[in-house]
Amino acid sequence: MSDEKHPFLHDLSKHRGSPSTVIVIFGASGDLTARKLIPALFNLSLDSLLPNDFYLFGFGRKTMSKEEFSELTVTSILEHSRRPLNQEVWARIQQNIFFETGDYDDLQAFKALHNKIQTIENNLGRNIQILFYVSTPPSVFKPILENLGKSGLASKHRGSPLASKIIVEKPFGRDLSSAKELNRIISKEFTEDQIYRIDHYLGKETVQDLLVLRFANSIFEPIWNLKYVEYVEITVAEDMGVAGRAGYYDQSGALRDMIQNHMMQLLSLVAMEPPISTKSEDIRDEKVKLLKAIQPLNLKLQGGDVVRGQYTEGLIHGDKVVGFREEKGINPHSWTETYVALCLNINNWRWNGVPFYMRSGKRMARRVSEIAVHFRPAPGSLFKESNKFDLAQNTLVIQIQPDEGTTLLLNSKVPGLETIIQPVKMHFRYATTFGSNTPEAYERLILDAIIGDSTLFIRGDETEVSWNLYSPILESWQSAKDHGIETYTAGSWGPVAADLLLAERKHAWRKPGF
Ligand SMILES: NC(=O)c1ccc[n+]([C@@H]2O[C@H](COP(=O)([O-])OP(=O)(O)OC[C@H]3O[C@@H](n4cnc5c(N)ncnc54)[C@H](OP(=O)(O)O)[C@@H]3O)[C@@H](O)[C@H]2O)c1
Fold this sequence. Notes:
single chain, alpha/beta, Rossmann fold, Dihydrodipicolinate Reductase, domain 2, 2 domains, nine-stranded mixed sheet, six-stranded parallel sheet, 17 strands, 35% helix, 21% strand, globular, disordered N terminus, binds NADP nicotinamide-adenine-dinucleotide phosphate
């Protein structure tokens, strides 16, 4: 089914006829459900994009009545939706909201859920598709999957377009062996076309626009290679700290939280070969090919390809903040990294020798995600002879958040009798051109899962290829002196070692957003 869709040419009329669906959220009393999933469902309902027959089951250990869960959905819309609550629209959905209390390892609770869904089908007089959303910590992924198998929910309507589907939240494994194990367990109960491994970065408009920018414009593709590109930077910087997720973050760190998943998705979309079509498998094949071409990293602490950092106290936008080890809920002796920078080399005909630098950190100077493609300097010396001008390199900056848009840095003559050259910006901003009320990533991704379009989800082999690159880094940090941790002041752009990583290669990080 997924191969029939052309996601980058989204035709919303198709969604309006999407199949009758029950969404079951495991971990429905949690943070993600309240902040993202319920507001996404509300906004889809506002746009008439949910199926006509739509049912929502929350599932969790917490004892909650149908009414209490329904009330919780209203609170979450009021607090987190991008558009205000429309009571009339949501009341129609609320009629079909239920909550099933149960332990994730309690088969009886899953059987009870199955019976209730069966009753819905009996009342409707036809089959209905079930979409499971696993929104719990990873420690309970396994019992949930096993009980979905044992209760018959996983195999319901298999072989028909109404086969059950499952969305699995990140993190998908902690390393290569746990990702393989998770793939093994999940594929025992579900076939690959039933599985939707989520990476919400792929649901962002600007990330989807990467493919449009590259392949719907003829001017970029001829120069998108080692002949014209000198290096590429990908930055995902956050100014916030662990923000109430200390327990999770101290066990995870920047490499697992950002680099292995979100940033690898950005990298693969920027660097992959043109797919032969916009069909799901064609795009995912190209992404996997690209990931396989990345060379193993040099893990030496000095002069290697990876820098690991942790923030100490500092100033964020003028306000004093504590260091990572002093954050509430963080082990005061923690060796978890809050920052990673690395240099990747892609060994293929397009990119051999072009460094791809990536960095991500918490408590950095400002919140910004962007991709900067630096082109080689203009050849010849027409304007360099006098040594009067320091010609800027042309750079294409794709801003993912905030202030979504694309900027091209060019050199221009300053008006006047003298020839003075100055870098200028050609700037396209989404908000100015299209308005600012674009759908949230989770709206797009939930909708795609309902209609069976897996393009913006991660395939099993993709997770393993990516972990294959990063697992050795995690292992090397275990044995390194001070676990390879450099420090950086909160509110800075990261450790000095990250500047050296580029300086050794005669490059420097861009000051993002400028
Ligand atoms: N929150 C985010 O912004 C965010 C962003 C990206 C990805 N994710 C991923 O989405 C998933 C859910 O995140 P979340 O922030 O919503 O998690 P959460 O609030 O910590 O947990 C969700 C629910 O899971 C159940 N739960 C929590 N700890 C459990 C445990 N140790 N054993 C069994 N059940 C437990 C609880 O429900 P009951 O007690 O009722 O069972 C809880 O309400 C995670 O995999 C997370 O990594 C979250």
